[in-house]
Amino acid sequence: PPADGAGVLAYVNHTNFWDGFLVHQLGKACERDAYAMMEEQNLRRYRFLSRIGAFSVRRGDGWSALASLRYARELLTR
Predict the structure, then answer these.
(1) What does each C-alpha distance from 45 to 31, 35, 50 come to in angstroms?
(2) Cα separation, 46 vs 13, whole angstroms
(3) Nearest-CA neighbor of 42 among 20, 22, 17, 21?
(4) Rounded distance, CA 19 to CA 44, Å?
(5) For every residue of the chain, which 3-state class applies, written as one string?
(6) How far apart are CA 70 and CA 65, in angstroms?
(7) What is the pLDDT of residues 50-75, one digit of tens each?
(8) pTM (whole model) above 0.85
């Protein structure tokens, strides 16, 4: 298990938008903040997921991917 306060990165190799909701619920159960990177198109479709920690990445756009990864790194260091 990670040390207290250490960030945890979980990679879910799945294409279901409910993964973000599952990550949120697991984080809540472990008493941790939880976030999920999600394809921008799906996040626009299921906006409620942004309220529970989902943030977007634009598929096929390298700059968007870089920005999303930098944001994820920022979250992990908090």
Answers:
(1) 28, 18, 11
(2) 19
(3) 17
(4) 15
(5) CCCCCCCCCCCCCCCCCHHHHHHHHHHHHCCCCCCEEEEHHHHHHCHHHHHHCEEEECCCCHHHHHHHHHHHHHHHHC
(6) 9
(7) 888 889 999 899 999 999 999 999 98
(8) no
Distance CA(72)–CA(35), nearest Å, equals: 8
CA dist 45 and 65 (Å) reads 19
Q: How far is residue 60's CA from residue 55's CA, in Å, rounded to a whole number?
A: 16
78 token code pair:
């908090």
At 45, list the tokens. 């479709």
Tokens of 57: 């990445």
